[in-house]
């Protein structure tokens, strides 16, 4: 496995191949069961992979549980990138989803518990919810960095023009 620096402003060495865990679990009626998921994770780790992409919404949180069980005793060997925006609950209460700080805080706490870890390497909103101002997202993510719950923050699935505007404003 080859490794590269993750971004131009970190010293984080990430494997060139990232393992996406969206189909770990079967709560949505499809996907790899926990045993098969563990085999995939083991093969990936044995090949030198160290970067796992996950989200709280994948299989309604089951994917995070599977990865959390796999990581026990070897957490420091992996880079975990998780995302939030939609709730892991199939029927969330109003206000318990989206990119607002309340939703972010609830989501990160649940993710930490499911992953059986006290920190997430990279954490980001899964997409632009069209409502939450970027300043609120930035403040919430910075709070999580300051608290040691996340190491790096980012954005994913945001329109390029919006990311450019955010970058210009900071």
Structure description:
The longest helix has 15 residues, at about 100-115. The mean pLDDT is about 90. The protein has a single domain (about 5-170), classed as Alpha-Beta Barrel (TIM Barrel), CATH 3.20.20. The protein contains 5 helices and 7 strands. Helices cover about 35% and strands about 15% of the residues. The strands form 2 sheets. Strands 3-4-5-6-7 form a 5-stranded parallel β-sheet, covered by helices on one side. With about 170 residues, it is α/β, with parallel strands linked by helices.
- Per CATH, the architecture is Alpha-Beta Barrel
Radius of gyration, whole Å? 16 Å
Strand order of the largest sheet: 3-4-5-6-7
Task: Report how far the terminal alpha carbons are from each other.
Answer: 36 Å
- Provide the number of structural domains: 1
Structural class by secondary-structure content: alpha/beta
- Helical segment tally? 5
The general outline is: globular
Could you describe the largest sheet, including whether it forms a barrel? 5 strands, parallel
Note the run of SSEs as H and E.
EEEHEHEHEHEH
Low-confidence segments, given as residue ranges, are none
Overall pLDDT score: 91
Beta fraction of the residues? 15-25%
What is the helix fraction of residues, given as a range? 25-40%
What name does CATH use for the topology? TIM Barrel
Care to count the β-strands? Answer: 7
Please report the first level of CATH classification, the CATH class: Alpha Beta
For CATH, the homologous superfamily is named as NADP-dependent oxidoreductase domain
List key phrases describing it.
about 170 residues, alpha/beta, TIM Barrel, 5 helices, about 35% helix
């Amino acid at each position: 496995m080859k490794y590269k620096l993750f971004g131009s402003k970190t010293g984080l060495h990430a494997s060139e191949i990232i393992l996406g865990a969206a189909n770990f679990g079967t709560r949505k009626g499809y996907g790899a069961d926990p045993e098969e998921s563990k085999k995939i994770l083991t093969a990936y780790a044995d090949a030198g992979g160290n970067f796992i992409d996950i989200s709280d919404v994948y299989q309604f949180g089951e994917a995070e549980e599977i990865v959390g069980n796999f990581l026990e005793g070897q957490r420091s060997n992996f880079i975990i990138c998780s995302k939030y925006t939609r709730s892991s609950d199939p029927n969330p209460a109003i206000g318990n989803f989206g990119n607002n700080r309340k939703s972010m805080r609830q989501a990160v706490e649940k993710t930490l518990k499911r992953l059986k870890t006290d920190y997430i390497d990279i954490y980001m909103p899964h997409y632009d919810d069209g409502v939450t101002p970027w300043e609120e997202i930035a403040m919430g993510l910075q709070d999580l960095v300051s608290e040691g719950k996340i190491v790096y923050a980012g954005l994913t699935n945001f329109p390029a023009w919006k990311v450019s505007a955010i970058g210009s404003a900071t």
